[in-house]
Amino acid sequence: MQDFSALDGAILVDKPAGPTSHDVVDAIRRKFGIKKVGHCGTLDPNATGLLIIVLGRGTKLSERLMGDDKVYEGTIKFGETTDSYDRDGEILETKPVPTLTLEQLNEEAAKFIGDQMQMPPMVSAIKKNGVPLYKLARKGIEVEREARLVHIYNFRFTSYAAPLGQFRVACTKGTYIRSITHDLGQKLGCGAHLITLRRSASGKFDVADALPLDTILKLSTAELEKRVLPFLKLAANA
């Protein structure tokens, strides 16, 4: 049997808004001097929440862990459409928001549940001929994208005070919550974009068990080792 070190495994990070997922990987690699570090599922820079960081031999499990279903919570603003489908983009159109109730929103949200072909936004990390789409979008170039099959297990609004709605979504990997937001706004005829997004769960892992990034970066190596989910435990659950 292979010998595993205390740093072969994964840690659960509560990512703050601002850094990219790759920034988090780099910060942990530099701080603790670990050669192999990766993450299991990209979060947009302004998205927060659960980011599974794999360390050492734990990187061998990244694909398996990345394939887990996800749960997100967030805020949608109705009445404005942006080119990125979220608050970071340029506003393309502004329309009056119809009178909506929480019940009406949930009736519309329920129509998204199940399998659907989803069109990725132009402002995304998907590559076209080796170039990330967001780099093309910055140049004003729009290209054809292939729709992806995703599955929405649950989509429900928990509160609504015009023009902002709080929601929760459970879905398969690779689902763009920004695209769901945009599509809902189009169906309602007023447009919408994503204001905040937080990943609360990925597979069996919950953000409640994660440490904030700044707290992790203050740990000693010995303290980090105590937070690592061991490789063999991860392999059994992946």
CATH superfamily (homologous) name of the largest domain: Pseudouridine synthase
* Terminus-to-terminus distance: 19 Å
CATH topology of the largest domain: Pseudouridine synthase
The total count of helices amounts to 8
Helicity, in percent? 25-40%
Uncertain residue segments: none
How many whole angstroms does the radius of gyration measure? 19 Å
Name the beta content range. 25-35%
CATH class of the largest domain: Alpha Beta
Shape: globular
CATH architecture of the largest domain: 2-Layer Sandwich
**What kind of sheet is the major sheet?**
11 strands, mixed
- Listing every helix as H and every strand as E from the N terminus to the C terminus, the arrangement reads EHEEHEEEHEEEHEEHEEEHHEH
Brief summary of the model shown:
This protein has 238 residues and is an alpha+beta fold. The protein has helices at residues 21-32, 62-66, 102-110, 133-138, 177-188, 213-216, 221-227, 231-237; strands at residues 9-15, 37-39, 48-55, 70-78, 80-82, 91-94, 114-118, 127-128, 131-132, 148-161, 164-171, 192-202, 205-206, 211-212, 229-230.
